[in-house]
Specification:
about 170 residues; 6-stranded parallel β-sheet; alpha/beta; single chain; two-stranded antiparallel sheet; Rossmann fold
Length: about 170
């Protein structure tokens, strides 16, 4: 199994933006990284009217689209229970590190992203799985490492030391 860690925080704090900045830094260090993004709503990556959409709408259990640059497998849950994070990890190709965005209630190590301007409470006091806080201000994290949110190189270094240097 690859090393797994995630980013937790309320909507609008910059989780996706930070991950987008971290990926080229980590990949530049020779780390093969995959990402799992948990969505809390009924999302769709398909386009109505396209062949794959029509196949799913007609009842296909899975539709795999493949081309010379990428492929995607869409699996319709229909009346099945949403897979766990562990089950989804088992579907990924081999890699060194999996970054998880979301699944904030699942137990695995996370970095909380917090912005005072967002007006939401911090998660770390109630979540023992948070191992650091990335923030755009100086705050007291009660002994947890405080990482500068706007300095992705520092956050990447923390990730490498904490999750990949065993």
């Amino acid at each position: 199994m690859p090393k797994v860690f995630g980013f937790a925080g309320f909507s609008g704090v910059g989780k996706t933006t930070l991950i987008e900045k971290l990926l080229p830094i980590l990949i530049g260090k020779g780390i093969r990284v995959s990402v799992i993004k948990h969505a809390h709503h009924d999302f769709d990556i398909d386009i109505p009217g396209k062949d794959s959409y029509r196949h799913r709408a007609a009842g296909a259990h899975e539709v795999l689209i493949t081309a010379n640059k990428r492929w995607v497998l869409m699996h319709e849950l229909r009346n099945e229970v949403e897979p766990t994070l562990e089950e989804q990890l088992g579907r990924l190709s081999p890699c060194d590190l999996v970054i998880v965005e979301g699944f904030k209630r699942v137990e695995f190590p996370k970095i909380e992203i917090w912005r005072e301007a967002n007006g939401k409470p911090m998660l770390y006091p109630q979540d023992p799985n948070i191992v650091a806080v990335a923030c755009d201000a100086e705050i007291d994290c009660k002994g947890l490492p405080l990482l500068p949110l706007n300095h992705p190189v520092t956050i990447a270094e923390f990730i490498v030391k904490r999750f990949l240097n065993d």
